[in-house]
Amino acid sequence: MSTNRTTLGDCPNCGGTITRAYLLIEYESAGQPAKFAECPNCRDVVHPSGE
Ligand SMILES: [Zn+2]
After folding, report:
1. What was the pLDDT predicted at 42?
2. pLDDT at residue number 13
3. What spacing in Å lies between the alpha carbon of 18 and ligand 1's midpoint?
4. What is the structure's pLDDT at 16?
5. 1 CA to centre of ligand 1 in angstroms
6. Is 48:35 a contact under the CB 8 Å cutoff?
7. Residue 22 — φ and ψ, nearest 5°?
8. pLDDT for res 1
9. Angle 32-11-26 (CA atoms, 0-180°, nearest 5)?
10. pLDDT for residue 27
11. Residue 51: what pLDDT?
């Protein structure tokens, strides 16, 4: 699978694209990498979906 390094995923709230520049924290949860980012569109802290 090829991932775009500059894109984290989509905002679950507004569907906007969240880029790496908006990444707040990256951690592992139950062996799965998880991320929190601020959506540049709705300014909410979300879990980017996608990847
Ligand atoms: Zn959003």
Report:
1. 97
2. 96
3. 8
4. 96
5. 25
6. yes
7. -100, 5
8. 54
9. 35
10. 92
11. 57
Give me the residues paired with residue 26 across strands. 35
Whether the CB-CB separation of 11 and 44 falls below 8 Å is answered with yes
CA of 20 to the centre of ligand 1 (A): 14
Per the CB < 8 A criterion, the answer to whether 51 and 3 are in contact is yes
Count each helix (H run) and each strand (E run) in the chain, helices first.
Answer: 0, 5
Q: Which residues, 6 or more positions from 4, have their beta carbon under 8 angstroms from its beta carbon? A: none
**Going by C-beta distance under 8 Å and a sequence separation of 6 or more, which residues neighbour residue 1?**
none
Name residues of the chain where pLDDT drops below 50.
Answer: none
pLDDT value of position 32: 87
Residue 16 Cα to ligand 1 midpoint, Å, equals 5
Query: How many Å apart are CA 29 and CA 44, to the nearest integer?
Result: 21
- The rounded Å distance from CA 29 to ligand 1 centre is 22
